[in-house]
Amino acid sequence: MADPHDAAPALLQPGQAAPDFTLPATPDQMLSLADLRGAPVVLAFYPADWSPVCGDQMGLYNQMLPEFHRAGAQLVGISVDGVWCHAAFAEARKLHFPLLADFEPKGEVARRYGAYRAQDGVAQRALFVLDAGGIIRWSYLSPLGLNPGADGILDALDALAPTQKPQGAQA
After folding, report:
1. pTM beyond 0.85
2. Measured between alpha carbons, how far is residue 62 from residues 21, 95, 163, 169 in Å?
3. For residue 13, what are the CA distances in angstroms to 50, 113, 143?
4. 3-state secondary structure of 25
5. Mean of the pLDDT values across residues 130-149?
6. Eight-class DSSP state of 139
7. Would the CA dihedral through 118, 119, 121, 127 be positive or negative?
8. Is the peptide bond before 24 cis (omega within 30 degrees of 0)?
9. Helix or strand or coil: residue 103?
10. In the chain, what is the greatest distance between 2 CA atoms, to the nearest angstrom?
11. What pLDDT digit, counting tens, does each position of 151-163 carry?
């Protein structure tokens, strides 16, 4: 009989509320999505810390942090790896954003986002941009072997920014 946890729900779509979660960020610190409310959040689900594509993807996002911060956004990486694996990976790659361990129950948060790959036991390579109220404004599922880059994230963050007209401009 098939395990009901193996059912792959569809990736959550724009307009849906992002499911809240609390996951370990370090061996003794937890981070909740609710802690990040009030500003945009980028959730980057990825399969594994030490895979070549994941390393390149997280390294790119680390380089893009100033752009994400200019948009007022917090970046969070999430995989099924444990906190010690994340700590070693973050140190080796000099990452400056939290990596959360969706380790036990394995992939529970990824499953809630429709971003779990049951046949491999890893998170999909899925991206979400949430607005300050926790509503998904953009989501993207990348093929496992391809780095999705940062353009979609930046476009989604730009779309969140209120349009500002220069002073004196007429509507």
Report:
1. yes
2. 23, 6, 27, 37
3. 28, 9, 17
4. strand
5. 97
6. E
7. negative
8. no
9. coil
10. 68
11. 999 999 999 987 4
Residue 116 within a domain: yes
Instruction: Give the residue numbers spanning the domain of 71.
Output: 40-153
User: For residue 50, what are its two tokens?
Assistant: 């030490």
Q: Which two tokens stand for residue 101?
A: 């361990």
Picking from 102, 126, 91, the residue whose alpha carbon sits closest to that of residue 31 is: 102
Domain tally, the chain? 1
Which residues are marked as active site? 54
pLDDT value, residue 108: 98
- Does 140 reside within a domain? yes
Find the mean pLDDT for residues 82-105.
97
- Can you give the pLDDT at residue 4? 46
Among 36, 15, 24, 2, which Cα is nearest to 119's?
A: 2
Higher pLDDT, 171 or 111: 111
Question: Is the model's pLDDT at 2 over the cut of 80?
Answer: no
